[in-house]
Amino acid sequence: MVITHHGGQCFKVTFGDLTLVFDPIAKNSTLPPVRFGADIALVSRDHPDMNGVEEVTYGDKVPFVIAGPGEYERQGVVVQGFLSKSVYGLDKGQTEAVNTIYSVELEDMTLVHLGALADTELSKEARENIDDIDVLFVPIGGLSAQASDGVLSPADAHKLAVSLEPKIIVPMHWSLLAQTGGIGKSKALETYLKEAGNSSEKVEKLTLKKKDLIGHDGSILVLTP
């Protein structure tokens, strides 16, 4: 399995001839859109920063789209989606939006992508069904209740990530802030790593097999877009 970061909350996961993408970036996003073919596309939040299904419909690949809670299976990949809340990128008059947390099982590993999560606790259903996480993608954009980007603050992100006991933690959403600007917001990654207090490693891509997870216990890996 090879995991690469394409900005914001977008991660491409390839294994064999199959490509899965979390939160592909659309053309009308403030972020650079993605452009590659995917077999499976998971959309956590209906927003241009995360719903670019057309951009991953490319060549001979037309993705099977998952855009909400439920149980799914496609080409040997098992996906569970759990309802949660986001306050990211709300339209005028909105107070909250639907966010979907995804648990994906493939190659004997479990990947969990929290999406644009604002809830500091997972639902009972998610807690009961998500277990033994190998790779956790956690949003770290909001800096505080007063200067929130609509997702978890670095402190809340760290607390939730630790409670889920993943083998590897991959922070996300920080590059979205760095690219779109905002006072202090581009420092979200620095703030998160300071909050976490343990060492981290920056990599351009994550090549992973089940055996590689031995010895990992909450290791933080920063995938650079």
From TrEMBL:
<dbReference type="Pfam" id="PF13483">
    <property type="entry name" value="Lactamase_B_3"/>
</dbReference>
<dbReference type="InterPro" id="IPR036866">
    <property type="entry name" value="RibonucZ/Hydroxyglut_hydro"/>
</dbReference>
<protein>
    <recommendedName>
        <fullName>Zn-dependent hydrolase</fullName>
    </recommendedName>
</protein>
